[in-house]
Amino acid sequence: MIELRRAGAVVLLFLGVGVGLHLLLEPLRNAGLPAMVKAMTLGAGLALAVLGIIGGFLISRVPKERIDSVAAHLENMVRRGTVGMAISETEADALGRLGHAVNRYLAFVKEEVEQSHLEAKEWQIQMKVLDAEKRHIEAVIGAISDGVVVTDAFGDLVLANAAAENLFGFKFDPAARRPIEEAITDSSFLALVNDMREAGVLVPHRTIEWIQGAGEQARTWRVILNTVVESKKHDRISGVVTVLHDVTKEKEIARMKSDFVSNVSHELKAPLASIRAYTEMLVEGEARNETEAKEYLHVVASETDRMTRLIENILNLSRLESGLVPVNKADLAVTEILRDVADVMTPQAVQKHIRLEADLSPVFFRVHGDRDMLYQAVLNVVSNAIKYTPEGGQVRISTYLEDGAVVVEVADTGYGIPQEDAAKVFEKFYRSRHSAKSAKGTGLGLALVKHVVDVVHGGRVALESNVGKGSIFRLYLPAVR
Amino acid sequence: MACKILVADDEIAITNVVARKLQNAGLETIVAGDGQEAYELASAERPDFIITDLQMPGMNGLELCTRLAAELPVPIPTILLTAKGFEIDRASLAHLPILQVMTKPFSPNELLASVKEALGLCAGK
User: Domain B4-124: which CATH class?
Assistant: First the structure.
C-alpha cells in the first residue's frame, strides 16, 4: 500500500514538473523560437527522467508524510504556473539531497526560461518592425504608376504591382509562386524578360522601347530591365526587375511635332517656290513685255505676304500659349465681333460661291473678354468652315444664350469631320487625313480657337459633325449679366 | 507638231509660271488645277508629257500617275514637282513612268532642260 502511494508520488512529481515547464515554455513556442524551446524541453525532460529514476529509488525509502508534502508543493506550483523550489532542502535525508539537486536544476531552468522570454519579446518586436517595413515597401511599389514586374532566377513571378496587373490583365497572388508565362501571355514582352534572365550577369541593365498591341490601341512603353545580383554570388543573377513606363503620349507629341515641322516647311515652300520661279523668269528676261514683268513682280510680292502671314500665325499661337501676349479684357458685344468677321470673310465666301449668312440676334449678348483674341478665334472657325465647304455650299453664323453662356455657332454644309477625328481637331498640329486632302493648313487654327476660348476666357468649345452633311462648331463664353 | 505638255498643280502661280516657261520654249501646254481635272485632260488630250504636283486636293499626283498608267495604252513620261521630295517612298514610283522628282522651290530653267531632254525626239520635230 505504502509502495503504491510512493510510486504515485513519483508520477505526480514528474507530471508536476513537466506540466509546469510546459506551461512556462508554451508562450515561447508560440513566439516563434521552436528550435531553442525544443532543445530546452528535451534537455529538461531528460534531466527529469534521470532525476526520476534516482528519485523513485530514494523516495521508496522516504516517509509517506514527506512525500505528501512534496506532492502538495508541486501541485501548488503547477496551479500557479511557476518554476521554483519544489522540496525543502533542510532535511538531511535522501529526499533532502534529491531536493537540493532538483532545486538547483529548477533554478537553472527558471533563469533560462526567463532569458528566453526576454529574447522572444525582442524577436517579436523585430519581426513586427520587419513586417511593417515589408508592407510599407509593398505599398510603395504598389503605388508606383509605372508597371513593376519582378521575377526570380527560375523565371517565377515574385512581385507585380497594380499598374503591371492592369497592363497585362492578370491578378498577382503573392502567396502562390508561378512561372511568369502563366500570368503574362504577351510573348514579345516575355521574350524581353527571359532574354534578360538568360543573358545573366553579362547584361546588368537594358532599356528597350516596346510596343504593346497594334493599330489605334497600340501603346508604347519604355521597358527598363535590371538584373538582380546577390552580393555574395557574383557569377549568377537572382532575378530580373522590369519597370514599364508609358511613353505613348510622348511619342504622339513627338510625332505631331515632326508632322508639324514637315507641314510648316511644306507650307513655307509653296510661296517660296513661286518667288524663286518668278524671280528667275524676270532675271532670264522671260517676260514678254512690261505688263507681264509687272505681273511677275506682283506674284512675288503677294507670295511674300502669304509667307509672312503663315509665319505670323505660327508665332501668334506660340506667343499666346507661352502667355507673352497681354490679355486686355473688357465687356464687349459678341454680336459686333461676329458682324466684323462676317464682313471680312464675305469676299472669300463669294469667291467660292458659298452663301455666308450672319443671323445675328438683335440683342447684344455681352461677354468679358479680349476683343482681338475673340475676333481671331471666330475668324478661324468661319475661315475653316468656308475652306472645308465645297462650292455652292452654305455657312451660317449665329449667336444665342444658353445656361448662362453666350454661344457662338458656326454651321456649314461642308465635308464634315469623321467621328475619330472630332476629338482631336482642336489639338495643336493635328490634321485629319480628310482635311489634309481637301484643303491646306497648318493644324494651328482650331488650336488657337481652343486656347482663346478655354484658357483665356474660361469657356469651352464643342463640335457636332456629320460626314458629307457638315459641321457645327460652338464656342461657349461666360455671359455678363 | 509641237509637243503637248500637261501641267497640274493646285497653285495657280505655279502652273502659270511653268506654262509660260514652256510656251516661251515653243512647247504647247494644257493646265489642270487638281488631280481629277488633270486625269480628265490627260485621258482626253493624251499629252506627250506631264508635270504634276504631288499634294493636290482630291486625287494626288501619285494616284493620277497610277490611274493613267493603268488605263492608257502608252505610258506618259512624268515629272513630279513637289515640296515633299525626300518624303516620297521611291519604291512606290518603281512601276510608274516617273522620270524625275523635282523639289520645290525649283528653277524653271532646270525644269525646261529636263523636259527637253526627255522629249528629245518630239522637240526635234
Answer: alpha beta
